[in-house]
Fold this protein.
Amino acid sequence: MVRPNEEVEALLQEYADLIAITRGDAFKARAYEKAARAIGGYPADVSHLDLSGLKEIPGVGKSIAEKVIEYFHTGHVTVVEERRARIPAGVRQLITIPTLGPKKAMTLYQDLHISSVGELADAIKAEKLRDLRGFGKKTEENILHGITLMQQAGQRILLSTAMESAEDTVAELSRISGCEKCAYAGSLRRMKETIGDIDILVAADRSSPFMDALTELPSTAEVIAHGAKKTSIRTVKGIQVDLRVVRPHAWGAGLQYFTGSKGHNIRTRTIAVHLGLKLSEYGLFETEGGKRVASQSEDEVYARLGLPWIPPTLREDRGEIEAGLRGELPEVVTEGDIKGDLHTHTDLTDGLAPLEEMVAAAAEQGYAYYAVTDHAPNLYMQRMTDEKILAQREHVRSLDGRHHRMRLLHGTELNIGPEGEVDWPDEFLQGFDICVASLHSHFNLGRKTMTQRLVRACENPHINVIGHPTTRLIGKRPGIDADLDEVFAACARTSTALEINAQPDRLDLGDDDILRARSHGAKFAIDTDAHSIPQLAYLRYGIGTAQRGWLTPDDVINTWPLRRLRRFLRKDQAV
Ligand code: DGT
Ligand code: CA
Ligand code: CA
Ligand code: ZN
């Protein structure tokens, strides 16, 4: 993603929210929201654009463009600051509750003087909301549900948010003289779907320059602890970062220790003990005499324990130690194995970029093939029609071959209806090279119906991939209630792949479900579901999740050569 674009996106989105909270012009709020999205998805760095360059972005007019320029010149936008000042921080905290919009938040503040999540929960318990206009019993339930979801997510943040912040910090610390190595460790290196805090490790002879630098970064809001062995700070985005500095010769042992997981480390320490050794963040030592036997690299440490190097994404004590001891660790899929993306959108539906631009950006990824899968008619707000999708197909065919070597597939993302039916009849579906089918509505029809809908989709001879199979949104919406084992078995039986949707707030399927699906013999597609050019880069999060599910290239259809993929897409049983 382009960082300055994201900053502007967040700022304009906040402005839109602030307008809504203060009951400003609803059209204006929507215009800022649209511009925010367009800038966030714009492929070029907007901080390099002048007024006329900015105005070429869809939805960005003179007034918005001027605010963007003001932001990059001065670091703030006056009108945003003014609106912020009119609203207490507590109210802004209220709108972070997933089910509570800006207008209701403002009502709560003005009528009941509620300005924190705690006060809101108390007011609901005291049944104070019921008499407010626009509120009712149902609203109360929704808000309570939102508060629960927020608390369940706890202070954990999305993998992508942590990754961006960690990469910035690693880059900053790497510039400091004396830095021999610098990397992020912990759950981030293991690519867990949410991250509690960021752990960063530096190899250097002196620790203080790094510890000091961390506390002085512009992104640092608060210093939690500042010492020679460990420094912890909180960033302006509220993320905790722990920094440790180790001696260069102990890099491998430190990295192994601070990568975790705790469960994995307990196992490696136990193996060490059985070998008459002691494993710590400083190295692997002989118990008697204390001689150092390994510490320089992770490779060395693992080798001395009789293990191959274990990919961080597998270090969860889910059988990787046993597999390693037997020499049967999987060769997990990597980004380089991916030959194409099989689920992407254009501005024909809710994507931001036109077809040509998405295709050109995909070609730059070095893909061998690329599928365009815009939404089908039953997602009404997308206004898809037969004519539009057929015209797109012509367009896709005309672009095919223009980017040497990369072949284009024309597909669609179908909607799985309440009974497992989809948007178009068989004859029409036949014309697509690939069909993804996803649940986009009716998430709560009961376990039996939900299972049947998905199984029926698998049995459709034209459906190749089940998109974001559980429809969960991390920290916001739980996955559907369905008999997933039955669904996974149906996928394996019918040659229908399960998607690993790489959108950071989905990562759907997640690691545990992948492990289960794999045991049924199902195949997978790691897709970005990109709605803009920068989102093509989400692939890495899908790869991390697939690795955590122990997948090898053979399990993942979009690592296969096009011929093998095409055979799978015909739903022939022998692939
Ligand atoms: P998180 O931050 O909750 O997403 O998860 P982690 O795994 O990053 O956990 P964190 O930040 O508490 O610690 C980072 C790693 O450091 C952890 O995975 C293993 C290692 N570690 C930290 N404290 C301990 C400990 O008390 N015992 C052991 N064996 N390892 C520890
Ligand atoms: Ca951590
Ligand atoms: Ca930590
Ligand atoms: Zn999609």
